[in-house]
Amino acid sequence: MKRLILALDVYERERALEIAECTADYLWAVKVNWPLIIGSGLGIVTELKQVTGLPVIADLKLADIPNTNGLIARRVFGAGADYVIAHGFTGRDSVKAVMELGETIIVVEMSHPGAREFIQPATDKLIELTNELEPFGVIAPATRPERVSYIRSRLKDGIKILTPGVGAQGGKAGEVLKAGADYIIVGRSIYESENPRESARRLHEEILGV
Ligand code: BMP
Asked: Which segments constitute the Orotidine 5'-phosphate decarboxylase domain (predicted)?
């Protein structure tokens, strides 16, 4: 089973397409974030889908009023994105505005140290919101497997857990999958490596071994 998501945080269109194409065999999906959209335009979503045949996750971390979230999400789903990531802290109405347009992933906790300041204290409420709205999945930190276990234990069955933070941020694929993650999100350890295909293959093997 494929459980690896490539975080394609480069600016350049050609580099992005090249890395996505050569790693696609080992991926479940490709995630695009602001750097790639700013550098290459929204059309990259459509192109990545054509080149890889994989789902594309638009990691926009939408955090606005419902109308603005909806205006953004409509265009991004329209470009072919299969999933859009939204923050939950802006409230149910803002998240629902995205969910009405397509499959949504809600941030319930982040992987960086600063997440402890404001996001982690709100995780329980964000889990509650998620269980009520039942989106496709949530973002949780691969850098803190114990938090992934905690989130898993409180999340409704069927809601997927996607975890960034493996590799460059210090998280370990095996540990976070054992803690309950469904997918791992990896960026720099793949796209900055000398051989992105080989790096993706190794991570895929590690996943299969769990
Ligand atoms: P990297 O493997 O290079 O650290 O990339 C991780 C990716 O996941 C980046 O696109 C980052 O924006 C995203 N991400 C994260 O690292 N932590 C989070 O809590 C949420 C994220 O979306």
From this structure: 3-203
Domain that holds residue 101: 4-209
Rounded distance between C-alpha atoms, residue 122 and residue 143, angstroms: 18
Domain harbouring 114, CATH code = 3.20.20.70
Report pLDDT digits (tens) over 99-111. Answer: 999 999 999 999 9
- Structural domain tally of the chain? 1
Residue 134 CA to chain centroid, in angstroms?
17
Interval 111-144: pLDDT, tens: 999 999 999 999 999 999 999 999 999 999 999 9
102 and 78 Cβ atoms separated by less than 8 Å: no
> Which residue ranges have their beta carbon within 6 Å of ligand 1?
7, 9, 33, 59, 110-111, 139, 141, 164-165, 167-169, 185-189
